[in-house]
Every structure is written in structure tokens, then in C-alpha cells.
Design goal:
Layout lengths: L11 E5 L4 H16 L8 E6 L6 H15 L7 H8 E5 L5 H18 L5 E5 L6 H10 L9 E5 L7 H14 L5 E3 L7 H11 L2 H4 L7 E9 L8 H26 L8 H13 L9 E7 L1 E3 L2 E3 L17 E7 L9 E7 L6 E8 L19 E7 L3 E9 L7 E9 H5 L5 H11 L8 H10 L1 H5 L5 E4 L23
Parallel strand pairs: 1-2, 1-4, 2-3, 4-5, 5-6, 7-12, 8-17
Antiparallel strand pairs: 7-13, 8-11, 9-10, 11-12, 13-14, 14-15, 15-16
Helix pairs in contact: 1-2, 1-12, 2-3, 5-6, 6-13, 9-10, 10-13
């Protein structure tokens, strides 16, 4: 007989980097939304920590409330009371051992004042360079262990290359065990990304076609119409390969290509994702095209070239576009090219996966122009306008045999309304101890391994006009017999 249910957790969220843009735009709205929807206990609390000493509890609560009113759609009348009840602030100054000891003392006080359960989420909303000293400071102040469980959440990028990722893994493993480490990629929290697994494995129709026997190519596109905005200092040191490909696009690739896991749990799913990554040889420079946007037009408005953006060095060679051709050398996918593409200032904002199926035998349609008979496609749109399209051929009415391409269409918003916020999903998973949607140590290292050669010898970027779909050279990655890149 099962014993009594454990008491519900009343966690404390300690966010280091709590005055940054990520906290204001994403984490605070997610925490407030979870509380407003009763997914977190009313007794939960948030302790923001950052270097600035200009905040105390009251001024930080006012700052947070202003941000929530700008970025959160939830119950605006309840924002100020929630901030006053839940939010606290502690400066960590220069990050000295004494500063972290003061933070640990404040953690204990907030837990006592709120009568919390002693369970803690340590969230590092920080740039990569600050991860190592912050992890060490928290741990040496005793915050890697507590009265209950302690889980640390680390934002991307987890490292800048394979070597630094290994070093960061070694450091964090010094103080935290792997089950308590949550490497977050917010793309994996999107409902439509999670549904990729359901679409594949709950529908025999698709899973039975999901192989080299029926699929000719797979395209993964993550396009942005924005430029670097206020992120130029970070972005020019990172570029599109580090910022998007190594994490977001590679995660989508592994979910699309993975084998059926033994169970729907964290380790089984992540085991299969790692197997996919180990089946791909490191990408060679000839398998990649880099680009950088020049001046152009977006939605009818003129926008500057990347090198003219505020904060970008005039002679920068940082790539704002990457297109790749990868091959997965395993039984399921041998010979099927996977094309990855991402960029800033592209035609529109969209994240989309297109699975191209083989064309029918041409002999049956010998009286037709072969180009008139298009291959079937499964188009999975992950943002915006989330949903799926199945593209197929029908006979056009009339005496002659002529085909017409049509679509079967499904949209989440039409069926289910608004989808849950990705950060809400992931924060709740951290509290519940579910690591399925988080990246494991071996997974992040296997991902960096794929791009080691490109990082060591990056191709020179081709120019492309803002508002276009990238440099013309990207078309050269495709086989001459293949249809051009999809235009979302």
C-alpha cells in the first residue's frame, strides 16, 4: 500500500541576474503566471539577486511590477499585491565570498518568514562569462545544499565551444549532481516542440513513413525578422552558430530524428537524442554557408546593415545567418540530408520543420510534366501560428488529368486557444523534478562536437539583404535535383 502523499513543496526561487532583461521580460511573467493560475503554492517566494545596490525590497518590487504590467497579460489588478507579497531583493555586490554569505543568510530569512519547505531553485539568468564564478560563489556559501532539494537552472549558451562546455560541466559537477542540474533551452518548453514526440509516436501513419525509405530531405528553419536589438555586445561575440544552431536547431534536429524511446521519461528520451548526435560527423566548412545582413526592408520599413547597428564593430565578420547540410549516419536516416537554416532580418519570423516525402513513380504520370507532380510534405510550424499542414496532390476537375497541390491544416489556437508559455512549462518542470525538456551533460557536449570545425575555421559570411531569405549561396547546399528551400 502506498504511503501518505508527500507535503506539497513551497519553493524559493533565487534568481541571480534578477535585474536583467531576461528576468523582466520572461521569468517574472512566467512566475507570476504560474502563481496566478495556482500552479505554484501561494506561499512560494522569489529572491532576486544582482550586483546593483540601488534596489531594496520596495524599489525592486516597484521595478518588477512595472515590467509585469508591460509584458504580462495576466490579471493586472493583482500584480502589485503579488510583487509586495512574493518578491525580495539582495545585492551580491562584487560577488565576494562575504557577498554570497549574505545572500545565504537572506535565503534562510526569507524561507523562515514565508514558512517555506526548504526547497530551492537557483536560476542563473546571466551571461555565459558569469556562470563559473556564480556557481562557485553559491556553492561555497553552502547554497548547493539546503533543508530540502536544491536545483540549479543554467541558461544557454552552456559554453562557447566543446572545451569550455566540458570545463563548465566539470565545474558544476563539483558542486551539484547531474539530476539537480537543469540546462534550459526555452525552445523545448514550447507546446508545439513537445508535440513533435506525440505526432511521431502516437500516430502510426507518420512513424511508419519516418525513414530513408519514404523521406527525401528534412528542413529546419528558425527565422527572425528582428536585428540584434540591444544584444549587440553579446551577439557579435557569439554569432548565429553559437546563439541558435548549437542549441535550438540542434535540439529540434534530435527530436525529429530520434528513435522511439523505451519510455516517456527524461533519461529514455535524452538517451535517444544523444544517439542521434553521435551519429552525425562534425560539420565540414563545405557543408555550411554563413551570411551577414546588409541594409534592406522589413515590413515596409528600412533597416540598417548589421555593421551599422548600434554596438556592432564597423568591420565585424560575425555571421547573422547560417545554413547547414547534415547527414545522420544510422539505419533510419542513411542518405537523407537534413538542412538547418537560421538568421536575423529574414523575410518573417517563423520556426518550421518541413519533411519532404518521395515523389511517386514517374511512369504512372508519364503524360504529365514531372514538375507538376509535387512531393508530399508535412509542415510543422512551431511559431507563430502554431500547427501542422499536410501537403498532398489531388486531381483538378476536368476532362484531362491534371494535379493540384492542396493542404490539410490544423492550428492549435483554433482548437485549444492560447498555448502555455514556454518558461512557465519549464519552471514548473524544475519544481516537479522533471528533466525531460532539459539538456543533459553528454548531450550538450555532443552538440558542441558537431560544430567544432566550423568554430575553428568559420566560413567568410556572404552578404544578404535584410528582408530576404539569406544569401543565394545557401541554395548551393541542396542537391541539384532537390526542390529549393521552402519559403514559409
Amino acid at each position: 500500500m502506498a504511503g501518505p502523499a508527500p507535503p506539497p513543496t513551497r519553493p524559493l526561487f533565487v534568481v541571480v541576474g534578477a535585474t536583467g532583461d531576461l528576468m523582466r521580460r520572461m521569468l517574472l511573467p512566467a512566475l507570476y503566471g504560474l502563481s496566478a493560475d495556482d500552479h505554484l503554492p501561494a506561499e512560494s517566494a522569489v529572491l532576486g539577486a544582482a550586483r546593483t545596490s540601488s534596489f531594496d525590497d520596495a524599489s525592486y518590487q516597484a521595478w518588477a511590477a512595472a515590467g509585469l504590467k508591460e509584458f504580462s497579460p495576466y490579471h493586472p489588478d493583482a500584480i502589485d499585491p503579488w510583487c509586495r507579497k512574493v518578491l525580495h531583493y539582495q545585492s551580491i555586490g562584487e560577488g565576494t565570498p562575504a557577498d554570497y554569505q549574505n545572500l545565504a543568510a537572506r535565503v534562510a530569512k526569507v524561507e523562515a518568514d514565508h514558512q517555506l519547505s526548504g526547497d530551492r531553485v537557483l536560476y542563473l539568468a546571466l551571461p555565459y562569462e558569469a556562470f563559473a564564478p556564480t556557481i562557485k560563489g553559491l556553492a561555497e556559501a553552502g547554497l548547493n545544499h539546503g533543508p530540502g532539494w536544491t536545483r540549479i537552472v543554467i541558461e544557454k549558451p552552456f559554453g562557447r565551444d566543446l572545451e569550455t562546455a566540458r570545463d563548465l560541466n566539470a565545474l558544476v559537477h563539483t558542486y551539484f549532481d547531474e539530476p539537480s542540474i537543469y540546462r534550459i533551452d526555452h525552445y523545448l518548453g514550447k507546446e508545439t516542440v513537445q508535440n513533435l514526440l506525440v505526432l511521431r509516436f502516437a500516430n502510426v501513419l507518420f512513424e511508419s513513413l519516418w525513414s530513408r525509405d519514404r523521406v527525401t530531405k528534412v528542413e529546419i528553419t528558425v527565422a527572425e525578422d528582428l536585428g540584434v536589438e540591444a544584444r549587440a555586445a553579446y551577439y557579435d561575440r557569439a554569432g548565429a552558430l553559437r546563439d541558435m544552431v548549437q542549441n535550438h536547431l540542434t535540439q529540434l534536429l534530435s527530436l525529429i530524428a530520434m528513435e522511439v524511446p523505451a519510455a516517456f521519461d527524461a533519461d529514455a528520451i535524452r538517451n535517444e537524442k544523444v544517439k542521434v548526435l553521435h551519429s552525425i560527423a562534425p560539420v565540414e566548412p563545405e557543408q555550411a554557408v554563413f551570411g551577414q545582413y546588409t541594409a534592406g526592408w522589413i515590413a515596409g520599413a528600412a533597416v540598417p546593415a548589421y555593421r551599422s547597428e548600434s554596438g556592432v564593430p564597423a568591420g565585424s565578420t560575425t555571421e547573422t545567418f547560417v545554413a547547414l547540410r547534415l547527414k545522420i549516419e544510422n539505419w533510419r536516416w542513411q542518405g537523407v540530408p537534413f538542412y538547418l537554416r537560421t538568421g536575423k532580418r529574414l523575410g518573417n519570423r517563423v520556426t518550421q520543420v518541413v519533411v519532404n516525402f518521395q515523389r511517386p513513380p514517374v511512369t504512372f504520370f508519364r503524360d504529365l510534366d514531372p514538375d507538376e507532380v509535387h512531393s508530399n510534405e508535412l509542415v510543422m510550424t512551431l511559431q507563430p501560428d502554431e500547427g501542422f499542414d499536410l501537403v498532398f496532390e489531388v486531381k483538378a476537375p476536368g476532362q484531362t488529368v491534371a494535379t493540384k497541390t492542396e493542404r490539410m491544416r490544423f492550428r492549435y489556437a483554433e482548437q485549444f486557444g492560447n498555448l502555455p508559455d514556454a518558461y512557465q512549462t519549464l519552471l514548473l518542470d524544475v519544481v516537479e523534478g522533471d528533466a525531460t525538456l532539459f539538456v543533459r551533460a553528454d548531450e550538450v557536449e555532443a552538440s558542441w562536437r558537431l560544430y567544432a570545425k566550423l568554430l575553428a575555421q568559420p566560413p567568410a559570411p556572404h552578404d544578404y539583404a535584410a528582408g530576404s531569405w539569406g544569401p543565394d549561396a545557401a541554395q548551393g547546399l541542396l542537391h541539384p535535383d532537390e526542390e529549393p528551400w521552402s519559403r514559409p
